[in-house]
Amino acid sequence: MSPVDRKRKPGRPRHPIGRGALLVLARQAFSAHGYRGVSMADVAEAAGLRKASLFHHFASKDALYGEVLAGAMADLGGPLARALETGGDCLARLDHLSDRATDTLAAHPDAARLLWRELMDSGEGLGEAGRAAIAQALDGLAAFLQEGMLEGTIPTQDPHQLALSLASLHFGFFAMPAAVGDLLEVEPGEPRAIAARKAAVRAHTRRICAV
User: What structural domains does the chain harbor?
Assistant: First the structure.
C-alpha cells in the first residue's frame, strides 16, 4: 500500500469530488428523472463514489434536492430580476426581457427543466420559501406588464394571466428538449437553435402582449 493509501481515511474516495461538482451531477439527474426517479445511490454512482461518501456531503436526499433547487433558482432568478430593472420604454424593455430570459434558460437548461418538472409535480420540494420566491418573480413580471398597460403600450388585460403565458412560452422550449429536437431536427442547445428561438420568442411575446 502506498503512503497516500495509508493516509486515506476509511470510506474516503481515492479521488475526492467537490461539493459543487456533486451538485451539478445531482441537478442533471433530478432534471432528467425527477425527485422520485433519482436515489442517492444513483448520484453516488455518477460521481464514482460510495453512497456513504455522498452522505458525508449531504445528510439526506431531501437536503441534496433542496440545495439543487436553490441553486437552480439562483441561476435563473438573478438575471431575470435584473432584466426587469432595465430602463427604457416598455417595448424596448419587453424585448430585452424576452432576449435575456432565452439567454439565461439556454445557459442553464438543466435548471429550467428541473424547476418546470418540480412545479408540474407539486412544488413541494421548493418549500414555502421557494414557492414564495417564484410567486414574487411572477408578481414582478405582472407589475411590469401592468405598467405597460397603464402607459398604453400593452392593451389592458389580466397581467397575471399574461405573466403566466410568457413564463410558459420561454420555459417550454428548454423543458422538453427531446420533443424540440424531433420537431425542429436540431439540438436545442446548439447556438443556431438558440438564436432562432430567441427571435421567435421575441416576436411571440409581442403578439401575446398584443403590441
Answer: 3-58 (1.10.10.60), 68-209 (1.10.357.10)
